[in-house]
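Problem 12. The chain below contains 669 residues. Write out its predicted structure in token notation.
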Amino acid sequence: MLTNCKICVAKTAGFCFGVDRAVKIVYNELDIRNNTVTLGPIIHNGNVVADLERKGCRSVSLDEVKPDNTVIIRSHGVAQSVYDRLGEIGCRIVDATCPFVARIHKIAEEKTREGYTLLIAGDPSHPEVEGIRGHCVAESFVFDGCEQLESLVKSDGLRQKKLAILAQTTYNKRKWDDCCELIKRLSPDTLIFHTICSATAERQAEAVSLAKQADAMVIVGGRNSSNTQKLKAVCEPYCPCYLVEGADELYGIDLTGAKFIGISAGASTPAYIIKEVLRTMSEIINKEEEFNFEEALEASLKPIHIGKRVQGTVLSVNSNEVYVDLGTKQQGIIPASELSDDPSAKPEDVVKPGETVELYVLKTNDQDGIVTLSKKRVDAALGFEKICAAKEEDTVLSGVVTNVIKGGVLVSSNGVKVFVPASQAAPKRDFDLNALLRQQVEFKILEVNEGKQRAVGSIRAVAREQRSAAQNAFFENTKVGDTVNGEVKSITDYGVFVDLGGVDGLVRRADLSWNRFKHPSEIVSVGDKIDVTIKDIDPETKKVALTYKKDSENPWELFKANYEQGQVIQATVVSITSFGAFAQIINGVDGLIHISQIANRRVDNVADILKVGDVVDVKITEIDTEKKRISLSMRALLPDDEPVYDSEAEEAEEAAPAEETAEEAPAEE
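Solution.
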């Protein structure tokens, strides 16, 4: 007799949803009709099969089926060819295929039809695997472990093919994870479908956790059951494990010295057998276990209602959906569209395996054991509380513009879509709101309607506050002579307005460039980022004068460094006047060729000799640096013949306003 020994029964032990559903279907059919048969043993448990036979339900092969039979297809599922043959026989078919297995059938058919070669992790002789392969319309291969998988993928026949990989629902979770890592390295484009039943994965994980603490593990289930054998296999590395089909086999096991015994059971093991094992074990050690298995079983079958909030643990994530353990026999699924309010978010970026999340029940399907869930609806409810708090506290929120609608935009923030009217979204009139689409923005809440769970926000309110703060900082920290960076906001005939970040400054025409130009748009364009120098600041009127011209580019400095009086140069005529012609020496510096210095004879009309664009040889006869005036002469370079001209007329012409500069003189078109 064992004394002072603790027994712990795994809460996940026993029937999974698919097996429980299949067994109930058989017993229900026996209550309403005769000639009911199962196509092979309904589950791999001799006790259940024997009880069904006593009640008149035999296990038969396909060849034994008669037209008057009601044929129940077991939870493992069958190949498409079996359905076709049963249809030819004409018998009544009741399909008890586990919904999770049926989902694999659908994947197998769809992906092989799309040209993928299917790789299946499992036992090739197991009826579930045979059924999966029977739904493939192209080639498929079965492997068990990384070594076989690597050999398959590296074979010449599969090297260049499109691959998809999935697992038998009862496959070893640890081995599957290793295989997934391997396939990602060997063939990164392979489609991976995580199809191990969540109940199987959870049962294995809990059994391993128990085995790590226990002195011995007792696994209850049929010896022909794949998932029961795998349950024993995952526990064996940690402690001695014993597989029993019923309570009577306990008497043949030596558990002497064990202080902690763990009990788990395969998915095909009925609850009454587990309770018998527990009762017998308690009798053997003369101690009642505190754990109430029956209550735990009932808890695992607790109903889940539409609209209810539940907690779940993320089991696996793929591009289309997320599988969640709800702590019940039902499988929780979150469609990708119900994960996040952000349509661009990838499922793997929203949740991670092992993470506990709060969810909203959208739909339940008791027949399939599927619960459809939403994370974004819970996020929206929690997020609206934050929206209301932001309104009360007048705080700034951030979000992404997800939709442009009539009258404004929708901004997703904290799982809530906030409406921002066009007048509160656009920075200026005639602004295309589509430019905001998918952009991160900051906004404030103007009003909320808690009854309708709606909120109205303003992007411009934040922009105004930011601009005001930037304006105050500018006038506090900026002084004349500072060089600042800004963006060209608008262009006029008289100058350019530059946004300095909260403050607009004006660059007048004269301060734009040292070079000659007709319009400011020749120098800069709207949107250009430019460096400007503060020329003047008036904090009271908020006016800022700027200059874009750089001292280092001053053409007069270049002229002084490279030219001198008496030097002969070439110049280009840029304008014609009544008293002479202005010629450009370098860009930004012109000199005057007086009418008396054009030729060695009298000139009545400058245009008779020169035109704009002419390049002429001239001599620099005078430089007035202070007034920035240069006198040029063509006549000084002509032969020294006797000039013929009217001296009185020349003197009168010289008395004309010769000081007129090149900028004041109209250019000849």
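Discussion. Residues 459-477 form the longest helix (19 residues). Students who got a different answer should revisit the alignment rule from Section 12.3.
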